[in-house]
Hints:
Blueprint (H helix, E strand, L loop, with lengths): L20 H7 L26 E5 L13 E5 L5 H7 E4 L4 E7 L2 E6 L8 E6 L15 E6 L7 E9 L2 E2 L4 E6 L9 E2 L4 E4 L5 E7 L6 E6 L8 E2 L5 E8 L7 E9 L5
Parallel strand pairs: 8-17
Antiparallel strand pairs: 1-2, 2-5, 3-6, 4-5, 6-7, 8-9, 8-13, 10-12, 10-14, 11-15, 14-16
The site of calcium ion (CA) has 8 residues, from strand 15.
Amino acid sequence: MGERTIRSDHVTPGARGAWTAATVIALTSLVTLYGCARLGPPTGGPPDSAPPEVVSTFPEDGDVGVDLRAPIRVDFNEDMNRETVARAFTITPDVDLKNFRWSGNTILTEPREAFPDSTTFVVRIGESAQDYHNVAMGTAFVFAFSTGESVDRGTVTGLVTFDGAPLNEATVWVCEGPVEPDSLGVLGRCGYEALSGDDGTFRVDNVRPRGSPYDVIAFVDTNGDGRYATGSEAGWVAVNAARVAAFGDSVGGIEVRVVVPRQ
Ligand SMILES: [Ca+2]
């Protein structure tokens, strides 16, 4: 990983007029906690710079009527760094998955209890999942299936900004509120997840309609633990920002303005 430290007195929007997550991390004075945790490539074997890919899943994206005890299977095109895949693997709504195990390039798991009926599940293998040579996917792989007759089709799109300019690599959650940090001021992952792109935009699909609007949370995961430390990581919670009231609703134009917490 290259040098990501940016002195705060040199902070300016990037070439595209956008903020980078690295810059915001510098502003939050937690630079030393970021990056550099990546392991070096294993010795031996040719260098590999091609990002790994998901080649198939079970259930498949869009499957309906999935068995309540169905296993989940994700096949990659190459040998993976298994720990990073497990860390990057999420399911929404959150259900307890057990027996994560591998068979070659395939990760398998199953629900500890039966999946609830008539529910859409979104499985996401995040950008940070790496192959055996520690090359990250770079782009998340997301698929959705339903234990009912249809897959939820709500969409939430928007923009993450910092100090008036787009912010990339912000973690975005679309959650059923109210969200409450724990006693240490930390919010655990909730709801649907996305990462803002280079232009600061984000998109979450397969959102379930509900009577109350969703909260939209964006933050820079400085320490990479997948949680939002509200006291030390830049972020914001936009309360009741996304109303997905009916099947297939598309909600756009949501701006989440990330701020650096007061130290
Ligand atoms: Ca964090």
